Automatic annotation (TrEMBL):
UniProt superkingdom: Bacteria
Enzyme Commission number(s) from the entry: 2.7.1.-
Top-level EC class as recorded in UniProt: transferase
Single Gene Ontology MF annotation: ATP binding
Protein name: Rhamnulokinase family protein
A Pfam entry, by short name: FGGY_N
UniProt keyword annotations, A-Z: ATP-binding, Disulfide bond, Kinase, Nucleotide-binding, Rhamnose metabolism, Transferase
SUPFAM superfamilies per the UniProt record, alphabetical: Actin-like ATPase domain (SSF53067)
CDD domains with a match to the protein in the record: ASKHA_NBD_FGGY_RhaB-like
Residue span(s) of domain Carbohydrate kinase FGGY C-terminal: 251-438
Domain Carbohydrate kinase FGGY N-terminal: 68-240
Amino acid sequence: ARVRSYAAVDLGASSGRVMVGRVDPDSLELREAHRFPNRPVRVPEGLRWDVLALYAGVLDGLRAAGPVDSVGIDSWAVDYGLLDADGALLGNPVHYRDARTEGVAEKVWAALPAAELYTATGLQYAPFNTLYQLTAAAETAQLAQAWRLLLIPDLLSYWLTGEQGTELTNASTTQLIDPRTRDWAHGVADRLGIDLGLFAPLRRPGDAAGFLTPGALEATGLSGPVPVTAVGSHDTASAVAAVPATGPGFAYISTGTWSLAGLELTAPVLTEESRAANFTNELGLDGTVRYLRNIMGLWLLQECVREWGGPDLGALLLDAAKVPALRSVVDAEDAAFLAPGRMPERIARACRASGQPVPATPAEITRCILDSLALAHREAVADAERLADRPVDVVHMVGGGTRNALLCQLTADACGLPVVAGPTEASALGNVLAQARADGLVGDLAGMRRLLVRTQPLTRYEPRGDTVRWRAARARLAGG
Ligand code: ADP
Ligand code: LRH
């Protein structure tokens, strides 16, 4: 049988990695070639991504990967680099947690009411959607000079190949795409004075995206030709493609820096009720819609761990497991937790404000975070089920957070449903499978998922107890 290897570049908000997938029609093996930290940097003008360090990590990773049949790139959504008329990068890409978008949405909604914006784009309100970022940048010298905008994976792809494109799944997070036509929302851009000419032409997962340039071949030690293939370049799109579902009644939670919780649909849900519940309709592979809600995710814990000077995570989670359940919870969807810094203090403040016991020790705060995430997972799954009118019988958790057994168990308990956890590197696997598919090695999404079920280790968590106390915790939060 044919065996092929694909390099998956997967950049998360907390780390980047280059993984190599070996695929034949009956097997799928993933190995890590290189992993490197993704550390945002605060400069006087704000919070920035160190995109050159990331690109250096990509080149080192491809060198460590060795010969591959193709390369695919995915990363976190919404952020971009601007190029001048010579194709040179203008400044460091702005981090989506930067404060520049504060108060911008109100200005946008004055020109285009939020309800209309939702019907046209299907996107939940998040201050960092590219649309708001571009509005915040409207008067800047940098944007005035810009000739091209490339989303982060498309920028790295451009550096590797010299070719420019805008991959659709990630483009759907800009809030400038119509989820019904799966094409640009020209009306929205016109009304807000956003120049869609900044974007390179759309491409879709599976499309050819060029070949490594001679310079990139030299920097990686690879010999050509090495093609780059467009994948679901939004990390969450790749992660959802790698959910090892076996039937139609599944919900998914992609858990990492964020928790993205929802359903895979064939058409967007654009109702007013859905907007009020802040559900998003992002685009997935094969014409699917990722109907989901953003939950703050393990960011809450990452930021505490940073503040505490980096204690051992395993030991911390064991201690957290011993803390009584559901003593206090915070709203893990609250944008008040978006910015970096002083996280333990902000969590304590939220508990105090809602009249709950204030967690004090790292174990207590960790427990509060995990209980709060499980509760938010429960709400998102239940709301998605109701709003999309689709019954759910199993919850799949994928991503780095599935290493946290306590979080998986609490999610099962809160949802009152079995949780199937794994794979941990779902984004990289979805990335690999999109390449394998373009190569004719696997079939549609269902075929990809069958291969995952056969080859990936999965852990099942059964719900314990009843869900009454979770409902009560939710009421406490709402009433607080
Ligand atoms: P992202 O892609 O958003 O950077 P990942 O999917 O890599 O995130 O997940 C990172 C998260 O996974 C960390 O914030 C951490 O909470 C969790 N994690 C990683 N390793 C472990 C571990 N050994 N035990 C428990 N949790 C872990
Ligand atoms: C997760 C993610 C998520 C976006 C956020 C900006 O990595 O891509 O889907 O909402 O980052």
